[in-house]
Amino acid sequence: MQALSELQRDALREVANIGAAHAATALSLMTGTKIMISVPTITVAPLAELAPIISRSNEQIALVPMEMSGGLHGHTILAFPLPTAHRLASLMLMREVAAAGALTDLEESALTEAGNILAGAYMTALSEFMEMRLLPSPPSLKVGPAREVLSDTAFAPGHTGGFVFCVETEFMIAQSDGRLPGYFLLLPDTGSLSAMLAAVRGA
């Protein structure tokens, strides 16, 4: 794939900004806590190259993957370092952050629902930009070392192993020093990738 021009990156960055703002609003409503966002960073790279970005030490991460259908086809992934996953689950459950370690069943359920709503916020922004309807599948949850769980996703049906759009942002909790790094990954199939690149060329 040819490198994106600065104008194309600006178009994708604007979509990411809108998606992150929607996600912060949704998270605020879910938790009853004001959530702000940092300016998103856009990375376009093969999936294998994103593991060190999401977890520099190949530590445990939590993924909420979903299939995407409608006008575009492929997969989306919400990815969180495990400490972020614990913090996000505690916000959803409105209780103190649980001790580090494996997620409990209740935390997993809360995190899956959070991932579903946050991914939906990003997909709404993409849907409006592409002027087409996008439909997510029910979410699931995977937890494990970054390289392992991302590698498993690389072989998901319909994904060619090609380029992935990764939106990196931080959700900042009002009246707190807490920062929740999160990553939204878009894995379009070959036809959808071409459609997206055509859209950003004309943006």
Features:
eight-stranded antiparallel beta sheet; alpha+beta; 203 residues
Written description of the protein model:
- There is one protein chain.
- This protein has 203 residues and is an alpha+beta fold.
- The chain is 44% helix and 28% strand.
- The chain has six helices and eight strands, in the order αββαββααββαββα.
- Strands 1, 2, 3, 4, 5, 6, 7 and 8 form an eight-stranded antiparallel sheet that branches.
- A hairpin with a 3-residue loop joins strand 3 (60-70) and strand 4 (74-81).
- Helix 1 (6-31) crosses helix 4 (105-130).
- The longest helix is centred in the first third of the chain and has 26 residues, at 6-31.
- The chain is globular, with a radius of gyration of 16 Å.
- The two termini are 18 Å apart.
- The model has no long low-confidence stretch (mean pLDDT 82).
Summarize the model shown:
This protein has 6 helices and 8 strands; from the N terminus they run H-E-E-H-E-E-H-H-E-E-H-E-E-H.
Specify the number of helices: 6
Order of helices and strands: HEEHEEHHEEHEEH
Low-confidence stretches: none
In quaternary terms, these chains amount to single chain
Helix content: 40-55%
Summed over residues and divided by their number, the pLDDT gives a mean of 82
What proportion of the residues form beta strands (DSSP E)?
Answer: 25-35%
List how many beta strands DSSP finds.
8
* N- to C-terminal distance: 18 Å
Protein structure class: alpha+beta
Q: What Rg do the Cα atoms give?
A: 16 Å
Q: Summarize the biggest pleated sheet.
A: 8 strands, antiparallel
Overall 3D form: globular
